[in-house]
Each structure stands twice: as C-alpha cells, then as structure tokens.
Amino acid sequence: MGKNIHSGHRDRMRARFDEVGFKGWSDHEILEYMLYGVLPRVNTNPIAHRLLFANGNSIVRLLKNSEENADFLTSIKDVNEKTVIYLRSLKAFIEYYRDKQIKEKPIVLTTDNMESFIRTIDFPDDREDMVMLCLTGNMRLKCIMRITEQSGYDYATADIDKLIQLSVRSKTDNMILVHNHPSGRIEISPEDINTTIHVQKMLDAFDMFLIDHFIVCGDEVISVKMKHGEKILNKLKGGRSNE
Q1: Which residues are bridge partners to 100 per DSSP?
Q2: Which residue ranges make up each domain of the chain?
Q3: CA distances from 166 to 65, 143, 151, 235 (A)
Q4: pLDDT given at position 238
Q5: In sequence order, which residues have a C-beta less than 8 Å from that of residue 37 and are 6 or more positions away?
Q6: Residue 135: its H or E element
Q7: Is the overall model pTM greater than 0.85, yes or no?
Q8: Distance from C-alpha of 203 to C-alpha of 185, rounded to nearest angstrom
Q9: Where does the pLDDT of residue 12 fall: very low under 50, low under 70, confident under 90, or very high at 90 and above?
Q10: Taking 80 as the threshold, does the pLDDT of residue 155 lie above it?
Q11: Contact, 192 vs 217, CB < 8 A?
Q12: What distance in Å separates the CA atoms of residue 211 and residue 203, rounded to the nearest whole number?
C-alpha cells in the first residue's frame, strides 16, 4: 500500500534518459520527465500534454508564460503555483547556464555559424525585441544583452545610451544587433536601416564597429547590411544612394 503506481513507468523513463539523454524524445516526454522533481507522486504525462497544448505545443512559449503569464498556466487543470514556480526557475537556470557557458567556453562567430547561432536567441512571440551581441576583435562572443526601450507587435526602439554604456563597460570591439519580426513580415523597414546607421555612427566615436544588424522572422534570418549596404555606406559618408 502507498506505493507510487507510476514508479515502474518513471523507472523506465529514467533508464532511457541514462542511456540516451533526451535524444529522440518528444517535447511532451521531456516535459513529463522534468516535472517528476516537482510532482513526485502525480502522473505528469497528462499534465505535460495539457501544458504544451495550451501553449501552442511550444516549450519555449510555455517557459515564457511561466515568467510572464503565471495566472494563465495555473488555470490549466492540475497545474498549481508550485509547478509554475518550478518552470520559471527552470527557464532562469537555462539562461544562467547559457551565460556561464559563453564566459567559460568561448564562442567564436563566423560566416558559417552566425545565422544558426542567431536562431537560438530567445525572442517573444507577441512583440519585437532587440538584443546586441558584444564581441571581441576576433569575433569571440562576450555577452548577449537586451536593449529594447519600447516595443509592440511591429516595432521596437533601442535605448542607444544604454547600448553605448553596456558596450563600453563590456569592452566590446565589435557588435551585432538582432531583432525579431513576430508579424511574419521579413521586409527590412526604413526604421531598421536608420537604426543601423545611427548605432554605427554612435559606435564610431568609441572605436567600435557594427558587424551587422540581423532580423529574425520565424526560421528566416536576413542581414540589413547585406540588403542595403550601399545605402548605409552612403549615408554614413553623408552622401546619397543610387536608389
């Protein structure tokens, strides 16, 4: 009596994890397994299914909501505040681990890995957000910082003063700007071009260089400088583009 009726299943899941980690697992299996620690005597399989379904079958969105919309998550059947706190802590730990990993195991960005790395940056689904990647002269990543001042579904403004202060403090040599387009429209706006030009002009005064400004839209990543390099160069020189 009193034996956990799910212990056999959990033992099999743990044995599977010991053998292959999470390789080949579905998202709901991973979430089910992660919830074992916070729900030791509950069947976490249906809870994992409900959590994912309510969050568009996205673990990323689920973890964001644990931080931004806890009331929504606790409205889901069998999801209590303790579970939400655990998920929020899990998200914070993942971010902490990534920051430590960058510092302890340097990442060097190249033309071959830059876009794939940019795709790993966490952006909100309901608003634009802007981050800067601070780099050394040989393109080693030093840190990732969020610099959004104001934002909405189809706009984001950067706090340029904050950007400069953080860049100087982190002894940045090169910088990459990245922001998202949750609207699904991948086109580069005049505001995107003007932000690129303005940031580069500000960085020039501190002997720092803006490598590029990228826009993420779904799985697509596009370069502002690649698309409008001539226009940007002419404006930086005070001239006119041919467009």
Answers
A1: none
A2: 7-102, 106-237
A3: 28, 10, 20, 26
A4: 63
A5: 86
A6: strand 130-135
A7: no
A8: 29
A9: very high
A10: no
A11: no
A12: 11
Q: How far apart are CA 158 and CA 38, in angstroms?
A: 39
User: Within 13 Å of residue 196, how many CA atoms lie on the same side as its CB?
Assistant: 28
CATH code that applies to domain 106-237: 3.40.140.10
Cα dihedral value 94, 116, 133, 176, nearest 10? -160
Q: What is the pLDDT of residues 86-107, one digit of tens each?
A: 999 999 998 888 777 777 777 8
Q: Is 161 exposed, middle or buried (0-12, 13-18, 19+ CB in 10 A)?
A: exposed
**How far apart are the C-alpha atoms of 162 and 88, rounded to whole Å?**
27
Q: What is the dihedral of CA 193, 194, 195, 196, to 10 degrees?
A: 50
Confidence (pLDDT) at 201: 87
CB neighbours of residue 46 within 10 Å: 13
Q: For position 229, what pLDDT does the model report?
A: 62
The first and second tokens of residue 59, run together, are: 């673990």
CA 65/CA 35 separation, integer angstroms:
16
Q: What is the mean pLDDT of the chain?
A: 85
| Percent with pLDDT over 70 in the chain | 89
